[in-house]
Amino acid sequence: MIVKKDKQDMLSYLEDTSNFKGDASLLYIPRNKDEVGEALRECVKDKIPLTVSAAGTGTTGGRVPVEGAVLSVEKLDKILDIDFDASTVRAESGISLQDLEKGLNKHNLTLRAQPTEPLAFLGGVVSTCASGPRSFKYDSIRRYVRGLNVVLSDGRQIFIERGGFFAKNRKFDFTIDSSRASMHFEFKLPSYTSPKIKSSAGYFIEDDMDFIDLFIGQEGTLGVITEVELFVQPLVYDIFACIVFFGLEDSALEFVEYIKKMRSRDYLYPCSLEFFDANSLSLLKEDYPSMPSSQAAVYFEQEAEGDHSIDSLINYWSKIIEQKGASLDRCWFAESKSSINRLYEFRHRLPQKINEILRANSQVKMATDIAVPDENFRQMYSFYKKVSRESKIFSVNFGHIGQNHLHFNFLPKNSEEAFKAKGYIMELIEKAVSLKGTISAEHGIGKVKKPYLEIMYGKKHLQEMAALKRYLDPHCILGLDNIFSRELLFNL
Ligand SMILES: Cc1cc2nc3c(=O)[nH]c(=O)nc-3n(C[C@H](O)[C@H](O)[C@H](O)COP(=O)(O)OP(=O)(O)OC[C@H]3O[C@@H](n4cnc5c(N)ncnc54)[C@H](O)[C@@H]3O)c2cc1C
């Protein structure tokens, strides 16, 4: 195992895209899962907090240590096995999504969900329960996780298979027998139920839940994931993508509502349904000067369905686009792989640009990751507009509108604006909770969003989450300061 103690070697691990800055005195880079166990045993012995680090594309400071050790999974980067009969792949947790996809594509396979930024590592994606633009059709990574190899904080390894162990009456009580040891687990689940909408806020909890689901979205607080087994799908070649530029924002919102209503018709089922407001487009205009001027835009991707060819689907979509007040001359259609990639890059360029601006202004990320139920989206949207108007701070609003999940980002120029923006973010969070929404649909809580979780769940449920953590990590060394505060954890 590589162990480093020089601060210079640690600098790149002390931040992520939230710009939250941390500190550490020890860096472990294990080369295999046994070395992960060794590092954890050392930390327990010396009472050193340990934070797991993947690619650092996270937006909440989750992988950033406040003190103690960092364990980087970067050397665990291999595809271990592809089972063609079962359509599954087993890979180490430090492989990037981009390398995983390349390895799968060689065999005409893919992870259709494409859960986030291609540089993110598989273990980071599972640990935040990420879901990308295609989640409208394909959901989050949770749906595809078939198995996990996890090293617990005392260094013991477990392989958890989906369908292996279920809770009964909100309690887990089972024994895992492995070649190395037999381990008994007996603990109560928190009394809340996770929202039915897309959510990555706190531990996933529901009646009769599968044990594996506890470890998806746990943000490095319950164990270190070393291997992931995923369901994969055949590559789709018949697909097209489009960006529709709307003269009026309301037309864009009506277009989205119509598509969501029609989604029950099996041939009209986009994988992505993504929104850009006027300010998002004004930022992108700097990089895409030929973009038609518009008040809002919607990006979608559609795969061929059943007997419907791509041409017939394009005709069908074109009629809807015109009916909803946009002109086909102001649409960017893409059918070839390279042109689809260009549209995808356009979509992806926006969060990259936001992160660059924040970094240049030395500001931490000041954004929401809220999703609300369908029936409350228009109310939430009006509230975003009100906040944007009243705050007088430049903001952009974009993202996964198909799931009522937008990323409202403030881009404060200075600390005065940042302070004001923080207050408005709190208002947005309170509004989302009052509309039965989640405060984090995909990024997780990490360190940056911790203050908001209590608004969503209340103190009692946070204490129950912390108690669960203390059962699985009795020495309280893993992912400290993620999800809930140390005070709450140590004062149970
Ligand atoms: C341009 C851009 C676009 C993005 N778009 C999306 C999007 O569409 N959807 C989305 O969901 N997110 C998006 N994100 C956020 C980010 O990509 C995801 O949160 C991603 O899942 C983080 O993966 P990572 O490997 O970078 O993890 P890191 O940031 O390194 O870590 C994230 C968390 O997981 C924990 N962790 C990491 N590896 C392990 C492990 N092996 N075992 C246990 N815990 C672990 C860490 O401790 C930390 O708490 C975007 C980010 C960027 C920069």
- Which residues form runs of ≥5 with pLDDT under 50? none
Helix content: 25-40%
| Strand arrangement across the biggest beta sheet | 17-14-16-15-18-19
CATH class of the domain at 79-234: Alpha Beta
Rg over CA atoms: 22 Å
Main sheet: strands, sense, barrel: 6 strands, antiparallel
At CATH level 3, the topology of the domain at 79-234 is Uridine Diphospho-n-acetylenolpyruvylglucosamine Reductase, domain 3
What is the CATH architecture term of the domain at 79-234? 2-Layer Sandwich
Bound ligands, each once: flavin-adenine dinucleotide
Q: Count up the helices.
A: 13
Mean model confidence by pLDDT: 95
Give the DSSP E fraction (strand runs of 2 or more residues): 15-25%
Q: How many distinct beta strands?
A: 19
- The termini sit apart by 35 Å
Shape: globular
Q: Tell me the structural class.
A: alpha+beta
Description:
With 492 residues, this protein is of the alpha+beta class. Among the domains are: 156 residues, Uridine Diphospho-n-acetylenolpyruvylglucosamine Reductase, domain 3; 125 residues, Alpha-Beta Plaits, CATH 3.30.70.2190. Helices cover 33% and strands 21% of the residues. It contains 13 helices and 19 strands. The strands form five sheets. The chain has a six-stranded antiparallel sheet with strand order 17-14-16-15-18-19. A hairpin with a 4-residue loop joins strand 10 and strand 11. It is globular and about 65 Å long. It binds flavin-adenine dinucleotide. The site of flavin-adenine dinucleotide has 40 residues, from strand 3, helix 4, strand 12 and helix 9.
